[in-house]
Structure formats: C-alpha cells, structure tokens
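chitinase
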Amino acid sequence: MQIVSAYVYGGRLLSVDEIKGNWLTHINYAFAVIRDGEIVHLFNQENLNVLKKVKRLYPHIKLIISVGGWGADGFSDAAFTESGRMKFAKTVAHFIKENDFDGVDLDWEYPSSDMAGIKARKEDKENFTLILREIRKALKELELEKQRPLLLTIAAGAEPWYLDGVDLKDIEPILDYMNLMTYDFYNGWSKKTGHHTNLFTPAHRPEDNSIDKAVKLFTDQGFPKHKLAIGAGFYGRGLRSVKATGNDILYADGSENFDVGYSTLVKDYIHKNGFKRYWDDSAKAPYLYDGDVFITYDDEESIFLKGQYVAKEQLGG
C-alpha cells in the first residue's frame, strides 16, 4: 500500500467533516512541540477528540503526531544526553498511548543546523540517531501492550546540505519511512521567481532542485525508494513587483514575498482578476502571473503527475 498522507494543522478547532479520510492512509497532526525535554500539545485539546472520531469513521487511517516544524526548538537539548533522550522518548510513548495515535513524526528542522533560529550542536548528527533509537525502543515496548505496530518517521530536508547533518545509513533501519520536504525550493524570502515544488528540474535551470533530483540524492546514498514519501504544496509562494514578459517570467526579480492557501488561489487567483496560468512542461509545474504578481504552486495537473511519478518509481508515497 502506498502512503497518501496529509499534514493537518491544529492551530484552529478542527471538524470531522473537513477531513476526507477516505482519500488518505495517514494523517500527520501538526504540531506538538518540545518543552523542558517533553512532548507537549499546545493546541485546543478538542482537536484530539476530533481525530479520535475520524479514526472511528476511518479505521484504516494511521494517526501520527508530528513534533516540531520550522523554528521549533528543543530538539538539540532533548537529544544531547542519554537521560534527555530517555525522557523525551517516554513522553512520546505516553502521548501515543493516551491519545490512541499510531506513531510519531520528528520534524526537526534541522539536525546540526541553526538556520531556523534554533539551538544546534555539532553533536546533533550523532544524537539524532541516538534519540531515534530511544524512541524506537519506547515504541517497541508500547507495541507489546497495544498489540499492534507503531510508526516512527521523520520529515527531511530535500537538499544536499541536509545530509551533512544526519547519518543517513544509521537512521534508515530505525525509520518506517521518511517524508521528503519537496517544497519551498523557492522559499518565502527569495527575491526571484521560481518553482517551489516542481517535479523535475527545469530544462533552462539545471542547477535548480526538484523532486526527482531530491529522490535521486537520497537513493544514491542507499536510502530505499519504498521508504520515501514525496511532498506536494497545498499553498503558493508569491512575489510582488515582478516586471517580466514572455519567457522571462521565471527567474525574474521581485520585491515582496507572500504565501497563499490553495482555496484562496482557486477563489481569487487562478484564471481570475487578471491572472493567467502558465505551465513549465520541463518542470511539470504551474505558475500564475498578472503582470506584477507571480505565484508558484501545485494544482490538479502537477499533483496528478507526482502521483504517476510515485507509482513509476515505486516510492513509498
């Protein structure tokens, strides 16, 4: 079975009706955080009850608690000592048991790196492996009690620098699968237009990243394809004050970044208010432009092609 997973953000009160469980195999509930070395859920507690109801409606779904996210601190400290790793793993297992989840996803952005403004140490590389081992140990003990397997996954950066901060060969046997963050290739602070979640590297920009390039990066290092799940962006990355024409829209200069959710894209941007949809066939990626504002995003066509790619390459999802 291939993974069809969705990150469900808990920053507002969720409802059962909005979660299309028949379309999914896994739900990553995002995000819990780390406080004093323990996993903590800071959102509305009712969301946990909503997810339990979703699980009853769709018993095939695996509920996974995602810990961390961009700018979420606490990982380096929790992983730094043996006692800290044991403490954290124990609280992860407790959360899974108390809330009837099926696993945990560590979204440490990123081991050995302070680019997100979090604490980082050179020891993170080794300690990341050690804390994953401790979590796996705690999950195995809980599996005996619950009589069912529990999942341990991570979200991983899709660029070569990510591999400098982790021991990929050491962590691979510990993980059930890895969520490759194959989005934000052109991120929220770039002052040039470009694709943020393109399937292939653009023919005219061979130095650019892509999903295909990221998959090859990890598989060339020995990571098995069936344990890789690629990502799609249900949001767009925008840039204002872009002055370009014809084939020069991509990689043109702009001055103000913004994000926009897909529902808003459909409502206000795609084929609306002067925006024209363009298609980069080499990258298999759409973009919008109205003469001033540029938006890179995923739509039905690009996501369909990603699904075909997953099947063809026999990826995890």
